[in-house]
Each structure stands twice: as C-alpha cells, then as structure tokens.
Amino acid sequence: MGDTDRAPDVRRLLDAVLLFGSELDLPTTLQRIVEAATDLVDARYGALGVLDESATRLSEFLTVGIDDATYRAIGHLPEGHGILGLLIVEAEPLRLPDLSKHPDSHGFPPHHPPMTSFLGVPIRVRGQVFGNLYLTDKTTGDVFTEVDEELAVGLAAAAGVAIENARLHRRVRDLALIEDRERIARELHDTVIQRLFAVGLSLQGTVRLVRSDVDEAVARIGTAVDDLDVTVKHIRSAIFGLESAVTPAGDGLRSRLLAMVRESSRVLGFEPRLLFDGPIDTRVGDRLADDLAATLHEALSNVARHAHARSVEVSVVVTDGGAGEDGDAGGTGPELSLMVADDGAGPPADAAVQGGHGLRNMATRAAAHGGTATLAARKAGGALLAWRVPLR
Fold this sequence. Notes:
single chain, Beta-Lactamase, 11 helices, elongated
C-alpha cells in the first residue's frame, strides 16, 4: 500500500491523538484515549484496562459502547482473566477473528453483550506497561485488519505520552498544593495560634483584675475581643487560600489579588501574608477593582525594589466605616481599604523622593474614586501604604 493510500489513515490517527493529546486531567485523558481508539478502528466496543501496582491485575476498567443499564447488570468489573489476562502476561498486540474460539477464552459473565472480533494493544508509559486497549466487533468488516492494528499501536504510543504528561501535571499540582498547605500551616502557626495564645493569657489575667479593677478588666476584654476578630479574619483568609489552591483559579477579585501576591514572591524572595475581610467580590466594581489591583502591584514592586524587607503584610478590607493606621478610627461611610505594611527600610526621609511617580500614581487612582493614598513610617519599623476609597 502506497503513501497516498495510507494518507486517510494517518489523518485519522492524528485526529484521534489530538482528541486526547492536550488534556491534562488523567481520568479524562484515559476516557478520551479509549473513545479515540474505538472510533479509529471502527470498533463497536472499547475498553482500557489499567494495571495495578503489581502489573498482574486490572485496577481500573473504562468502557465505550456499553450503556449504563448493561454496565450495572454485568456487575463486577474484569480483573484480567482469559484473553484480557493473556495481554497482561504477553504485552504484545493481539488480533483475533473470534475471541470465543481462543483456548484462553473464559467466556462472558451474565448480561454481557456478545463479542466476536478482537484487537488488543498494550499502552506503555516510559517503557513500562501501563494498561491495555481492548477493542471488539469491527463495525465495517468481519475482522480487524493489519492496518487497524498498526493504527491502534500508533495511538497507544501517543497515549503513553499523553498519560505521562497528565501524570506530571498532577504531580506538579500536588506539589503546589503541598507547598500551599505548608505556607498556610506556617501562617496559622505564626499569626493565628500565637494570637489565640496571647488572648488566652490576657483573659487569664483579667479574671484577677475583675475583683480589683473593673475598668481595666473591661478594657482588657475589649482588646481580647478585637484580637479574636482579627484572628477570625486571618483564618478566613487562610481557608480561602487553601480553597484557591485546590480548585481552579476563579475570576473574582479575591482570586485575582491572591494570584498577584503569590506571583510577587518571585521578586520578593518570600510570599506576603494576605488578609481579606468583607464582601470584596460583590461590593467592588470592575473599574475600582482594576485600580486596586494596579495599586497593589505597584506597592509590591516598590517594596521589592527599595524596602529590603523580610516580610510584607497585605490587607484588603471592605468596611462599613474607615480604619486608620494600626486600627485608628477613620471615615464614616462604607470604604474599601488596601494596606501594605513591610518591615524594611521605611519611607524615604526626602519628601520629594517619597512623593515619586509610584505614590503619585496610587494617589491619582484613589482620587479618581474620591479616596486617598498615604505612605508613612510604621511604629514598629518599615513603611505602611494606606489606600482608601469610599464605596457608594
């Protein structure tokens, strides 16, 4: 057969490979492989059996062509006996005109549809057999041909690459999830647990004060309540970070800012702590969200270039009333605030330098919404950018 005669078959093979080649989810990849193989050789039924760790039995069995009612009626899935087992023992392509007449055939379980012609090929991943493709009952002929076998072998080779690609993607995703879990665990330990411990000690001391100094006791309890409120916000932010690591990134403002903060770790050398509070995704409009994101990006870039900081804390809060530096009372109406605090060198002493293009850009964005932007030294060292915009 000449190259011209084989061109349609090659195109069919390429089309089949494209069907699953770009998929990164392993279960979806496996299902698409068996679907593509079934269509490629005009089989009525198809299956992909995945070997277990011992490589002697089937741990998964994906099918095409059998309806749900029949699938349920058959019950227990095959484990690799009979012809299926032969392909496990001898990992070579197998083509039969009538599988029931092969000496290794064990027949079919009750409710199983009758099958005659058979084509089986192994799928190898990095040289090791991953599983087998089982194709039965050619719809356009009595038996599977040598060309069908070549096409199935070619598809199986491409399938091995696609499976390895999906496996690697899953490992990378799992590693990223582990890193996020470790980061969140550190954040919970460094901020939440320590804060709860401090609140507990304060309340223990308050019990003694109740008898001697009621005013001081009330003040301590008020401080403890405020600390617990901040702790709850840290927990919510940590949970959101973990959920964002597990599920695909959304298109909300929280997800957008979280991705920006994570990306900043490349230039900062560490990941800033991020705290969310309030209905950020629902109360912040698109234009304001764009200006907020641009301001945060510029603020983090400035810290990376000038501050020489070892830690950065970012808070994005929607409140009923404004809040000042370190919790001082601010405005009277609903407000969006962005605070970026670092422990670096602090703002420049020269007012002209401090009011450079970066801060002017931030102030201009805030002013466009009737808000303000200020950069000030922190009491504990470093700098605090406070960007506030009223919400209408």
